[in-house]
Amino acid sequence: MIGGATWTISGGRVLGPAPFLLAGIINVTPDSFYDGGRYGDLEAAVDRGRSLSEEGAHILDVGGESTRPGAAEVPEAEELSRVVPVIRELSRTAQQSIPGLRGNFPVLAVDTYKAKVAAEALAAGASIVNDISACRFDPGLADVLAGERPGYVLMHSLGRPGAMQRDPRYGDVVDDILAFFEERLAFLTARGLPEANIVLDPGIGFGKLLEHNLAILKGVERFGRLGRPVYMGLSNKSLWGKLLGLESGERQTATAVATGLLVARGVLVHRVHEVAQARQAAIVATAMS
Q1: 101-116 pLDDT, tens per residue?
Q2: Fewer CB atoms inside 10 A, N or C side of the chain?
Q3: Residues with catalytic annotation?
Q4: Does a structural domain hold residue 3?
């Protein structure tokens, strides 16, 4: 396993050891690139969470602001109104017995870079903060992380979504991201977030061209030298459109194949829209490794 097979989240709970973990995506947004608008109300979002749970998700990742390239920022109050009720209701659902569920109900994550949204989501029942900003957009987020000690997804991005795809350049993209992770890990642990609570997301598509994304995937084992598990989000992204000429609704097979290959190469956490397909690919990859 690249960097380890366990991840500490809120309350000292440990996910793993495991050959893989699947994070099912719940976009409570009108404008996400793949499923914007499908789960915009509370009932639809909670039903989506139940479905992903039944498919075998270990984590439910709830986001209230699209971070696709060029996306507009969402006001804090609006993001709070989108995600906190969903997390609260899913947290209640987690305490119930659900027929047909594979194992326990998934742990909950909030996809945000805002300190207040993270704090209120954690209070509502989330155990993980998935942050595209690496604590660079809202200085208060590091204080929330240090105080609450949730699981934390440390992601690399070249700036904010509105500008990150404007002529991104690297020396060696993996070396550059490794240096970024080293600096951010030192910052976060100095502020009080234990290293065991952090996983590393190289940020596929966040300030990267196709050649950068492919170089990251080809060199993924190199991230293991930092000693932390890798978290990968490549589900239905534009790299499959550029590589294969596929529209956003046609990329499920490419996503499943890539997920299986990455499981075989030791990536621990996989953030996906179609959990059932990813789970099948991951099981096959594990059985054949």
Answers
A1: 445 799 999 999 999 9
A2: C
A3: 237, 271
A4: no
